[in-house]
Amino acid sequence: MNIPADLKYTRDHEWIRIDGDVATVGITDFAQKELGDIVYVEIETEGEDLDAEEVFGTVEAVKTVSDLFMPVPGNVMEVNGDLEDNPAAVNEDPYGAGWMIKVKLDGEAEGLLSADEYRDLIS
Q1: Residues 63, 64, 68, 69: what is their CA dihedral angle, to the nearest 10 degrees?
Q2: Which residue(s) pair with 103 in the sheet?
Q3: DSSP-derived secondary structure letter, 37
Q4: Through-space distance between the first and last CA atoms of the chain, rounded to whole angstroms
Q5: Measured between alpha carbons, how far is 65 from 111 in angstroms, rounded to an integer?
Q6: Banded model confidence at residue 10, pLDDT cuts 50, 70, 90
Q7: Which of 2, 44, 107, 118 has the most CB atoms around it within 10 Å of its CB?
Q8: What is the C-alpha separation between 71 and 60, in angstroms, rounded?
Q9: Cα 77 from Cα 79, distance rounded (Å)
Q10: CATH class for the region spanning 8-108
């Protein structure tokens, strides 16, 4: 299981990479494996201010549809448009090409898990 140590994680299986006041968000390797083949990613919250734990989109896999939750409060400033044509990037490279949104942080990133804490959660 790929759980990069330089990222933070949520109990809802999103990862977050914070760089200054901008955070990149996606779903974890564990989440994409649990979902199976991802066929569609729908994110229509670009430009919106959302609180932590609000739904920012959905991911549709062969087996199910799952909500995507904001790990931190902020403004959804960018959506990965490449996922529209290639949603499988989430399966192939969840921490790289499969990123989902970039968020302008509004306040502190609280309640996030370290890689070790996330590993404990899913084991």
Answers
A1: -110
A2: 23, 76
A3: S
A4: 10
A5: 25
A6: very high
A7: 118
A8: 19
A9: 7
A10: mainly beta
